[in-house]
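Pasting as-is:
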Amino acid sequence: MTSWIFALTCILSGLGLLGNGFVIYFIAVKKRLHSLTNAFIVSLAVADFCVGFFTIPFTCVRKNISGYHNLRILASSHYFFFYSSACNLCVVTADRFVAVALPLRYVTLMTWRRVPRFIFSAWTLPFFVCLLPFTWIFSSSPETRNICDKFFIALLLTFLEFIPCVVMVVATWRVLYISRRHTRRTMAVQSQLHFNHPRLNFDSLRQHRERNMSSAKLISIVVGLFVLCYITEMTSSFLHLLNVSKESWSSYINNDFRFLFLVANSAVNPFVYAFLKRDIQTEFKRFFCRNRWPAMG
């Protein structure tokens, strides 16, 4: 691995550990943050935390081992956390889509009984997918292993990279469209009510409008960063498929530039929550202001 890539990967891994660890701890200890949406965010933060925690050890181990079996097992273990993060982000996007597009059905669709099922699915799907290579990596036929690797990479590229990106982009666009439409309608109603009843308090309407736009901005930025970071991974997988017979699996996984973007995605997410998710932002302000004033006194 190039020294500057390794150094930057270490920095991003450290940021991911600190940021996601703080988000997990903060939501866990603050009862006001115990909501359905934040349960999904904690699950995503755990996946991103694992990405930061295991990336450097996996990178160091990969530099000191050889052999198809060892490299393949290590790659499957490493990618489990990347794809767990991707699947959890899909769940978060689905939650925000239902909340904005189907607000009246959100209470019945997203219940505390169903939330663990969604989270469980977001972890078990990549787990079983990453176990698939164990059915052929111990085969004595190099041709069998090459063919299976080719189909497996195509499976990952299609169902755990490309399709999630497309679905999340479409869902995010829909959330933004609906949020802007709701905002225009709310402002029209507010303007009419203000004209007819100048003394009415419109704080609830303003908070509803701000809450919708905040959710839309949050999910659009998180999904945008995800797609941007995964473009390198998808490009690398696609190029590898085009030339799979000429490249060994070891040369494929040693392309560490891809990991840099995947780690960056996990490192940035908690800072997006801190600055854009309104309830977490409010609790951050309360926490830091409360700890600041005694110190100043």
